[in-house]
Amino acid sequence: MEEVDLLYRAKKLGLNTFFYPKSQIIHLGSASSNGKTFPILQVYKGFLFFYKKHYSKFELFILRLILKLKAIIAYLIGKIKGNRYLIETYEEAFKLV
Predict the structure, then answer these.
(1) Is residue 41 within 8 Å of 89, Cβ to Cβ?
(2) Which residues contact 47 (CB under 8 A, 6 or more apart)?
(3) Please, which residues have CB within 8 angstroms of residue 60's CB and are 6 or more apart in sequence?
(4) For a Cys staple, 1 with which of 14, 46, 71, 78, CB 3.0–4.6 Å?
(5) pLDDT per residue over 53-97, tens digit each?
(6) Cα Rg for the chain, rounded, in angstroms?
């Protein structure tokens, strides 16, 4: 989400932003993840951080509702399919929101 935040702030300042499909960003080390958490949780945390920083409390509330709904649906799919990863990940994601 750091890249999204950077581009969002640049756009708000009136700067032009460009997309170059061959560009790469290399993260050195594992500063953004401790390696034990599920990637989905990092995405949820990133969305929440971004919205807290740039949007109103009402918009953050709507995001939380959407993320909770997504977590519930994915959790139920995990239960139906017996997919432990979905169950554990989205159970944690629901708590996070």
Answers:
(1) yes
(2) 1, 63, 67
(3) 48, 51, 52
(4) 46
(5) 999 999 999 999 999 999 999 999 999 999 999 999 999 999 999
(6) 16
Residue recorded with tokens 């994915």: 74
Tell me the residue length of the chain. 97
Number of Cβ within a 10 Å radius of residue 18: 6
Cα angle value 10/12/18 (rounded, 5°): 45
Nearest 10 degrees: Cα torsion 69, 88, 41, 76: -20
pTM summary value: 0.73
Q: Which two tokens stand for residue 47?
A: 């969305």
75, with CB counted inside 10 A (0-12, 13-18, 19+), is buried
Other Cβ atoms within 10 Å of 44 Cβ, number: 23
Six-digit token string for 53:
């920083």
